[in-house]
Every structure is written in C-alpha cells, then in structure tokens.
Design the sequence.
C-alpha cells in the first residue's frame, strides 16, 4: 500500500487515496483532505464527519449514507448538498476511513 | 515533493453518465433490485431515472407500495434467501404461504437496515432520483398522479421516456 504526503505528514493510503490507518487522522488533517477534493469544511460538514468517526469506533466499518441519515440523524438530501456527487465516498475520505462496503 | 494520492471523485459526475431503470414488476423481491441499483448510482453522482410500468406501478401506487408480496408460486428458485432447501411447489399455493414468505422476507430486508419500499422511494427522492410513471399503465389501472407516490414527476408516454433518457445506460427489471 502506498504512502503519500498530506499536510506535511506521511499517510498510508490505498490505491485510490483513502486512508488505510484511521489512527493517522485528526481534525487538522481532515481540513487538508477536504481541500484536496475541493470542499471547505463548515460546521454542517463536521456533524456527519464526527458521526462517521464515532460510529466507526463501535462498528469497525464505515457507515453507509443511510446509516448516517437514520442513526446519525442527518437527512440524505443535506448530505448530497454538503458533499455533492458522491457523498458517501467524499465523507469517508475526509473522515479518514475506507469507503462504505454496504449496498444501502 | 510528489503530488499526494487523492481520489478523483468528480470524474463520473462530470462525464454526464446517465442510468435509466425500467421497473416492470410488482413482486417484493423484484422491487428491490431497481431501488438498490438506483440508490447506488445516485451515490456515485450518476443522473438516474426510474420508469414504472405494468406491475411496476404497484411500487408507486400509494394503495399497494407498502404491501408488495413475495410468493413461492411460479418462482422457480422456490426457497428463501439463505435457505438452500426449497418448499414443494404445491405448498407454496396454500393459503397463508405467500403471507408467511412475505413476512419472512420483509424481516430479512429490515435486518439489513434496508428500508421498505415507500421509505426507499423517499430516500431516492432525497438523493435526486427522477421517477416517471407509464401513461398506458396509468390508463389501464385508471390511476392519476394523485394516486401515485409524490416523488413521481409525471405520467409520461413511452416516447417521452425514450426522449428523456437519451444517451442513458438502460436496465429492464
């Protein structure tokens, strides 16, 4: 697996660029990850990102869009507005997690 | 310093990929493939259109959308998912067999945290899905837009649908 330099730090990623070691992530890194994909983080973005991180602690896998909406309480429509195009993948990337495995 | 490895998320959205799914079945088990694929496509930033026709109307008819059935009758697989042993063809036709099989399948779907059909449609609408109802099916069933799920944009003719989905990849379910 490749190692890339993000915000002056050595970060382990997969071939696509998703972080493979969630423990290398912190909120400062998230700002750079977001900027890498053209997103400026606001408080509205932080809610789902923090949910993904918290949920990952217990579930050991990345929450799907549906889980962010039903368990995290953030409407799907809002997630599409905050992370246009591919919300589930963009959120996971910024949260330093792998993209979700679930179908729904 | 080398360029960091960053996922290229905006390729598909920018390339104008478009998917059209024709939903023509009203069985519970045949409703889900279209819904799940639409959801996946929307999550990839792909413009997605669903066209409901014939029995697929049951998926968007407010009177039936929450009550689709799974039946062993006429189902050549004749078993529940995860159970390799089938049940005898004749038993599937007994009173209560369809209700039991439907309840069991609904529970399996709910256990995977996959929503029931009406809630699934809401989720697709929130994700920006376009939904269309077939004119001929509406006429045959004597239904108007008021009878249909609110996210359905219009009742349109087959030729309108062909126009709207120009250049789209197409699935018939």
Sequence:
């Amino acid at each position: 697996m490749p190692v890339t330099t993000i915000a002056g730090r050595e970060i382990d990623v997969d071939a696509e660029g998703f972080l493979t070691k969630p423990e290398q992530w912190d909120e400062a890194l998230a700002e750079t990850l977001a900027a890498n994909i053209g997103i400026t983080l606001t408080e509205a973005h932080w809610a789902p990102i923090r949910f993904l991180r918290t949920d990952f602690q217990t579930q050991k896998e990345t929450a799907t869009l549906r889980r962010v909406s039903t368990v995290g309480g953030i409407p799907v429509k809002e997630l599409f507005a905050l992370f246009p195009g591919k919300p589930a993948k963009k959120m996971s990337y910024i949260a330093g997690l792998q993209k979700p495995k679930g179908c729904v | 310093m080398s360029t960091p490895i960053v996922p290229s998320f905006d390729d598909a959205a920018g390339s104008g990929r478009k998917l059209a799914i024709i939903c023509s079945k009203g069985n519970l088990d045949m409703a889900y493939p279209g819904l799940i694929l639409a959801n996946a496509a929307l999550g990839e930033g792909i413009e997605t259109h669903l066209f409901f026709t014939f029995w697929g109307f049951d998926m968007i008819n407010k009177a039936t959308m929450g009550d689709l059935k799974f039946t062993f009758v006429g189902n050549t697989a004749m078993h529940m998912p995860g159970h390799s042993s089938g049940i005898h063809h004749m038993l599937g036709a007994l009173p209560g067999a369809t209700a039991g099989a439907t309840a069991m399948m609904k529970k399996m779907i709910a256990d995977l945290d996959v929503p029931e059909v009406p809630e699934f449609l809401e989720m697709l609408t929130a994700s920006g899905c376009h939904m269309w109802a077939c004119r001929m099916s509406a006429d045959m069933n004597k239904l108007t837009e008021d009878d249909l799920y609110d996210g359905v944009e219009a009742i349109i003719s087959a030729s309108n649908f062909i126009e709207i989905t120009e250049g789209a990849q197409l699935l018939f379910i």
Observations:
- Residues 80 and 94 of chain B are 16 Å apart (CA to CA).
- The helical segments of chain B are 11-15, 28-43, 97-111, 117-126, 135-141, 158-164.
- The interface with chain A takes residues 1-2, 4-7, 9-10, 12-13, 36, 39-40, 43-45, 112-115, 123, 126-128 of chain B (CB under 8 Å).
- Chain B has one domain: 17-80+88-147.
